[in-house]
Amino acid sequence: MQADPHDTPVPYMRRTRDWYLALGFDNPYVWAHHPDVPFAPLGRPLTEMKLALITTAAPYRPDRGDQGPGSAYNAEAKFYQVYSGSVREDHDLRISHVAIDRDHTTMEDSGTWFPLPALREAEGRLFGSLAPRFHGLPTNRSVRHTLGVDAPEILARCREDGAEAAVFVPNCPVCHQSVTLVARHLEDQGIPTVIMGCAKDIVEHVGAPRFLFSDFPLGNSAGRPKDPASQAGTLALALRVLETAPAARTTVQNPQRWSEDARWKLDYSNVATRSDEDMARHRAKAHADREVARRIREAT
């Protein structure tokens, strides 16, 4: 059987660079890169350890516009400070505030981006116990802010909760950079981590200790939507990577497939597949969204 030429990981770094240049932003984003990667071995079996969950999803706020299934990117829904929530409660977290793959992700099943229910089901079986809180990490383009403010805050909250290891679940391209930076910070301080993500090029460019790569559209780092077996299997594999990775820069690819047809990978932020009229609409919205984000950030 002939290999599908499209069945390779999406080049998100190149796509987002070309996309933002086409939108009229003439300062291409410089992604963080580290040749050296910290690595904290597990001190004991994972079945005896307390695990923290870190997400880039945002709490639903009804006053911030449409954040439901199929909604457009919503800059009003962004958050700019670390937040926490009890793992013993259910939470309505959404991802309309980030640049996920809206062509192939409907945002109908939060289990694809916030695996707290799956973690509670696996507690005491695949790992020891959950730390009392999960933590929300802002999607911040500023590497300096992520490293200087968000990473120390996540570390402090994990230590306060007695977390001994952490699972990170990003959504958009910048989310993948942010969680990798913070995972590196935790590993450097002795807390083992694993990232469940979909943007392979970004995570490996930044330099991740442990990474489970799922070749799914952005917004589905925790498994396929409305597919409990996919979500449970993805989590189980991520925990296996956490426990068995032999060294830093360990990447394991999830064997699950999104679709037998890999042409979905051609769509995300691909200038070559968009008409002039379509790009004009995206350009106008991008500049309006940037102004909204600036206003909210200054008011925070």
From TrEMBL:
<protein>
    <recommendedName>
        <fullName>Glycine reductase</fullName>
    </recommendedName>
</protein>
<feature type="region of interest" description="Disordered">
    <location>
        <begin position="276"/>
        <end position="300"/>
    </location>
</feature>
